[in-house]
Amino acid sequence: MGFYIAPQFLDRLAVHITKNYLDLPNVKVPLILGVHGRKGEGKSFQCDLVFERMGIEVIYMSAGELESPDAGDPGRLIRLRYREAGERCRIRGKMAVLLINDIDAGIGRVDGLTQYTVNTQLVHGTLMNIADTPTNVQLPGSYDSEPTQRIPIIVTGNDFSTLYAPLVRDGRMEKYYWEPTRDDRLGIVAGIFEVDQVARGDIEQLVETFLDQSIDFFGALRSRLYDEQVVLLIQNIGIERISARVVNGTEALPEFHRPDFRLSHLLEVGQAMVREQQRIQELRLVEEYHQSTLSSRSLSDGKSGGRDRRNRIEEPVMLPVEPSSKSYAGDANSTQLTPALVSEVNRILNQGHRLGIEYVDARRFRTGSWQCFGVFERDGAAALEALAECLTQHPQAYVRIVDIEPQQRIRLTEQLVQRGG
Length: 421
Hints:
This is Ribulose bisphosphate carboxylase small subunit. Residues 328-420 form the Ribulose bisphosphate carboxylase small subunit domain. The protein is α/β, with parallel strands linked by helices. Helix content is 46%, strand content 14%. The chain has three domains: 7-177, P-loop containing nucleotide triphosphate hydrolases (Rossmann fold, 3-Layer(aba) Sandwich), CATH 3.40.50.300; 182-281, Helicase, Ruva Protein, domain 3; 315-418, Ribulose bisphosphate carboxylase, small subunit (Ribulose 1,5 Bisphosphate Carboxylase/Oxygenase, 2-Layer Sandwich), CATH 3.30.190.10. It has helices spanning 7-21, 43-54, 73-92, 103-107, 118-132, 165-168, 182-192, 200-209, 215-224, 227-237, 242-248, 263-283, 285-300, 306-310, 339-350, 362-365, 380-393; strands at 32-36, 57-62, 96-101, 153-157, 173-177, 354-360, 371-377, 398-405, 410-418. A five-stranded parallel beta sheet has the order 2-3-4-1-5, with helices on both faces. Strands 7-6-8-9 form a four-stranded antiparallel beta sheet. Helix 3 links the parallel strand 2 (57-62) and strand 3 (96-101).
């Protein structure tokens, strides 16, 4: 399988690493290069390809190593890995780098509820100290008079705004936002399917169809194509014997044949994966699971009037609905939907957004356990018909409509259209 390296990515990493090994006159070179961008765009993998091409020795660290039950351990570990990279450079006579993957997941402040520990503070301080004095990196409790080999540090992440601002300032960290161009995406996806001999035209149409998907989507798509053969293998061997056959079996496993790489099949499997993504984003079950906790916190705030507030349900502004028992049959005159509600539904869909319809009974309303009645896009008539049907089928339930932004798949507004009971 051939792998594509984006020319701009190669240039930025190669220049940063090489500059740190040169003695440029009267030039202060930032020690750290921060590669950030959207999830799944192959930042770490592109780094590995560049390191392999340049013949660089790499010392790896992950976000999971930046926290410990013992205060000071992650900072000490960073110093150890930095000095280890310097020792490899000295012994093997090659460039070396220290790579810290997903740094914002380890020491980033995502929101006000993110725990800020002593180690988080010490890791920021350690990296700033190394960036300021890269040739004098000492271990706790000891001092080495010999200068430390200067080693460039590469960090990857999604959102560097969650890091401590003095760490990412110019002079300490050089920033590079990785956003693959159309040519980059075509090159990378073509490399993924190179051994499968997928035509260049099919690659272009595949990328254009799933233009808003990240790079790792196409790798997952190729892996999904082998599912049918794996299922057949399990059926032939038997679900009870597959473990022993695969792990410690004496017989060789059958060869996997080339799956169906026709464009129509690729698009079909890709659309199925997209629907799974949309379902996760639109359900947002985490909000339901945490709604009861948040409600309990809000009800317990304040010492006065706590007993009255405990029995009161906070409700959003409700759009008016005509009181009627008639069901919607496609005729605007027979629906119980008011002009204001119809206008709001059309406004959401005309913006290119998705409209979600949800309902919940009075008992589950307090815990926020909403159920999805349907999600609609573009077709206003179908959305209004479904909304009227939901109101008719659940006359005693709470019903709301949700404005969903399709690109980021986030909820913009939630509006109650029927009060339960």
